[in-house]
Specification:
The protein is of the alpha/beta class. The protein has 19 helices and 13 strands. The strands form two sheets. It has a seven-stranded parallel sheet with strand order 3-2-1-4-5-6-7, with helices on both faces.
Amino acid sequence: MPESRKEIRILMIAGEVSGDLAGAALIKELNKLDENIKVLGIGGDKMREAGMELSYHINKMAFLGFTEVVKHIPFIKRVQRELIELVKQNKIEIVVLIDYPGFNLSFAKKLKAYKTQIIYYISPQIWAWGKGRMKTIRTYVDKMIVVFPFEEDLYKSNNVNAVFVGHPLLERLESYNYLSKEELEKKFELAAGKDILLIMPGSRKHEIEKIFKPCINAASKLANQFNLQIVVACASNIDENLFHRFSDQKNFKVISGFTYDLMKISKIGIIKSGTSTLEAAISGLPMVIVYKTSLPTYLIGRTLVKIKSIGMANIILGEQVVPELIQHRVNESEIIEACNKILSDSSQYQRIKEKLLSVKDKIGSAGASARAAENIFKVINENQRA
């Protein structure tokens, strides 16, 4: 532990559940390096538990897509103004932005006027969005801390200061104390010995509104065909009753807080595109990836996104190992057909499972949070000496 010194204040911004988990682990590792580090900003319950002083909770920031952001522009501007005041009042010199690029890259532009050091942890999907964001990052971000090895090469080739630390998901999964299938069955009164079809519909209400009904309708027919029981994994920030309001189906169980356990034991998943698909891949869970947003957002995104796949497992493996259903394809019949192809062919099922399990070896080793904290702490010390 370094010698006692005055409190060092850092602004940190995460806007989603996955960012909250990564941010909480990062705060804990920073405090191991120096207990005088105080973190302020936007986060969730996990970051608050780790000692963060919240200006806004991530629940207030759960908008996604171009049209959704447009509706929230007055709120976004107000939040950014308040964060700038926080920077000025607390004489904050270092800002850590975690994923959440729509908000964070916009805010990074405003911060530059205040001579802050901007560190970005968990890169925007720059390889998907093309050169526009690369130019913004090169101009406004001082250091990128990335979680996939190919990102480091991409940034360095574009003259951006970048370091690869591995994915924080690995340490969470490796340290996680899993319940057995029997323990889960007993705890949640699941049918003993019956395979699980797992639905993971996202952590935002408007995502669930768009995709849950076709997913649960398809799941009900698949459950009858393949003798499965349906479980819906509920994010910590979502009211469990929401799923029953969006569906007339009654043959499913909603479980909150045991997502990793469920991914480990389920037979197949219907999973909204995002971090959950990477978690499922590392768990070896064959899945169908679904994604649906507003039509204007989809049409704009389609002209900007430069890659064929949206699922991280498919991107990392360089092939479409698991099917992806996007926008109008998120419907009952296509979900049934995609799941059917996986479940009806045992050799194909096993091939998918083995390929997904290989994803883990391609994203580094556990300890990403500690390595990220060390990189941030190095910048803190450089500032202290300046």
